[in-house]
Amino acid sequence: MTQVASKPVTPREATAVCNVYFSNPKPATLLREGQTKKGDVFSVARIAGIMAAKRTPDLVPLCHPGIGITGVEVDVRLVGQHKAEEKGVEENSGHGSMHITATVGCLGRTGVEMEAMTATMGAALTVYDMLKAVDKGMVIGSVRLLEKKGGKSGHWVREKEVDEMS
Predict the structure, then answer these.
(1) Domain ranges of the chain
(2) Distances (CA, A) of 56 to 25, 118, 121
(3) What global pTM score does this model have?
(4) How does DSSP assign 102-165, residue by residue?
(5) How many Cα atoms within 13 Å fall on the side-chain side of residue 141?
(6) Are the beta carbons of 141 and 121 closer than 8 angstroms?
């Protein structure tokens, strides 16, 4: 772990995204109709993402423990079969996908980028778990940091979106 004791405590924030791409049309249909067997995928995945952010130091060996997270927001939504135009949303599976965005904030000496990315992955794994009975071919991908604020390096924003699935 890097030494951060000499760094000042400042507000910090990070936003990350990822996608769960469907390999067949069944998951999107079930989600639209609210007919998934394991319950409300959106709410359960959102809570899983929040829990994952809080447990990041248990999962990432050199991540700083004890970051005072001041907030975690996780958005989980279904994206259709067309190219989405919103920042950070991509769709290139012919059967739709779930788009997950996580924003984590803290007052601390180190950033929360890992917490934001861990939140998206926790939510994505939950989506996979809840839908695997109807789509074992789902792909979790395009995990990336979109933005970070605070600290010595200041404000950083991803300039160009990656397109991992093409």
Answers:
(1) 10-150
(2) 33, 6, 11
(3) 0.87
(4) EEEEEEESS--HHHHHHHHHHHHHHHHHHHTTT-TT-EEEEEEEEEEE-STT--EE-SS---TT
(5) 17
(6) no
Q: Which residues pair with 103 in a beta bridge?
A: 15, 73
Q: Could you tell me how far CA 46 lies from the centroid of its own chain?
A: 9
Catalytic residue from among 40, 129, 135, 163: 129
**Class of the domain covering 10-150:** alpha beta
Which residue bears the tokens 């995204």?
17
pLDDT in tens, the chain (166 residues): 677 778 888 899 999 999 999 999 999 999 999 999 999 999 999 999 999 999 999 999 988 887 889 999 999 999 975 444 444 445 455 899 999 999 999 998 888 999 999 999 999 999 999 999 999 999 999 999 999 999 888 899 998 765 444 3
Spatial distance between the Cα atoms of 58 and 104, rounded to a whole number of angstroms: 17
Whether 129 sits among the annotated catalytic residues: the reply is: yes
Contact assessment for residue 90 and residue 144, using Cβ atoms and an 8 Å cutoff: no
